[in-house]
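Q: what sequence does this backbone want?
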């Protein structure tokens, strides 16, 4: 399903999925760093939106789709190599919106970024 997508290009892999919690890993390598050699904030945001979006879609009804609506990120430290782990926790499960908190951590559990993601839940449009 993710082949050829941004997830594939960034090397994002899901490691855990349940109602209200999603985890994934992403490498910190040439695909995800900025020119100064540290993890790019945009790659962190893409990882956060990915896990939150997947988490929302996981709990949506069959005829619903989750669409990213708002993201707010704080990048609190940096990392140069290895991989990062995203842990997404559902903090609001409404009928029309879901809000997720996503913490992005280093292998040694150091907080790299914390991201709030709001997804709009709507009926799937058939074209």
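A:
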């Amino acid at each position: 399903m993710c082949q050829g997508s941004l997830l594939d290009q960034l090397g994002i892999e899901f490691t855990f999925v349940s109602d209200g919690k999603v985890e994934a890993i992403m490498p910190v390598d040439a695909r995800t760093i900025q020119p100064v050699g540290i993890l790019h904030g945009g790659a962190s945001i893409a990882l956060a939106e990915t896990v939150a979006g997947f988490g929302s879609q996981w709990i949506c009804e069959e005829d619903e789709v989750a669409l990213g609506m708002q993201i707010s990120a704080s990048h609190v430290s940096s990392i140069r190599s290895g991989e990062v782990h995203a842990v997404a926790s559902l903090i609001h499960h409404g009928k029309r919106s879901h809000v997720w908190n996503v913490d992005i951590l280093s292998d040694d559990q150091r907080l790299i970024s914390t991201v709030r993601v709001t997804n709009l839940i709507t009926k799937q449009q058939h074209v």
